[in-house]
Amino acid sequence: SPILVGITGGIGSGKSTVAKIFTILGIPIYSADDRAKWLMANDTLLKAQIKEAFGAESYDSDEKLDRGFIAKTVFSDPEKVKTINSLVHPAVGRDFAAWASSQNSPYVLKEAALIFETGSEKSLDHVINVSSPLKVRISRTLMRDPFRSEEQVNQIINQQLPDEQKNELADFVIKNTDNKLLIPQVLKIHQQLISEN
Ligand code: ATP
Question: Which ligand 1 atom is nearest residue 11's CA?
């Protein structure tokens, strides 16, 4: 079975960019955010739990998830955000475990914005944090997502654990400042993970 490695980093840190480099090396990547959306729309158990917690209106007559309804329901209600997270995170955990065990690779990566925040490092062998200065992250995010305001970006940053704390908790740190090369840092970690298996 592959070694399970998480890759995280605050908004705009460059974790998707780093994950692409691992993909080029042939490493299978699981995107927790994409998969969470898919599971909310398709996983029978999770759908039943969401309906039980928020009502049958969570899905329309064609069994399609009503994202607008969910967004409206949890909006600015921290208890409801906790409830939905307490349903979605275990579903992603189960799905990731099943996916990982079917991969033929020395290690696999789980890409997620929140790892330490949700305690999912407990079911991972290692975690990589992609680290960039706050100013750089904000300007990269605003360049990539012109629809977001600086205020919205700061709001997301405030929901995430500070970068310095993630660096302390992580087994590997990839520094993604403009003067640091990513590929050599990725290759070093890749060699180490391969030699472990
Ligand atoms: P999110 O959490 O929002 O998904 P992320 O951590 O996955 O963000 P990326 O999407 O990889 O971050 O990077 C944010 C933006 O910054 C992207 O447009 C990306 O192309 C750019 N970027 C990332 N790293 C670098 C770099 N070293 N040099 C220049 N641009 C970069």
Answer: 2
